[in-house]
Amino acid sequence: MKFYSGFSLKNEQHIFKEYTNFSEYSVCGFSYGAIKAFRHVKEQLELKKRVDTLQLFSPAFFQTKDDKFKKIQLMAYRKNRDLYLSEFIKSCFLPYLKKSIEREENSVEELEELLYFNWNMDELNNLVKKGIKIEVYLGGEDKIIDVESAREFFLEIATVTYIKSANHFLLTN
Has residue 168 been placed in a domain? Predict the structure, then answer.
């Protein structure tokens, strides 16, 4: 199993262990890491490598947010990166108490990529046609992404698990 971490995070895969497919042919990603996992699977297919499952935990889904929202996020990050990241991590845990999480260096370019990434239905369908099972996990209390739009979008091509009382980390307390 290959796991890709969320924006500014590292080593958080243990949080998702109850949902994770630990097969060597499974690729998983959390939030921003879901974008990386998706790209990795596409690369593996080009290399004729085997992938059975793509698991997307709270995938970064901002394609329904307007440009103003995205510019405000980038401006806040550039103004005070540490404050932005502190508030971002706190929001990931809402409505529950923040827990300890390992952080990784990041850049404004990564935040920009995360905010402006658009999931492409044709590319996702291509993975499904090649036999890859796509699983998406969403928390109903997620304060980071547009959960309802993500749910509606991914239902077309994936098995979507909706955890009503879960936050962005898919935790319920």
Answer: no
Residue 20 domain flag: yes
Joined together, the tokens standing for residue 155 give: 């239902």
- CATH number, domain of 106, equals 3.40.50.1820
Q: How many CB atoms sit inside 10 A of residue 1's CB?
A: 14
pLDDT tens track for 14-68: 999 999 999 999 999 999 999 999 999 999 999 999 999 999 999 999 999 999 9
CA distance linking residue 86 with residue 102, whole number of Å: 12
pTM here is 0.95
The total number of structural domains in the chain stands at 1
The candidate with the shortest Cα–Cα distance to 151, out of 162, 143, 164, is 162
Q: Angle at Cα 51 formed by Cα 54 and Cα 14, nearest 5°?
A: 50
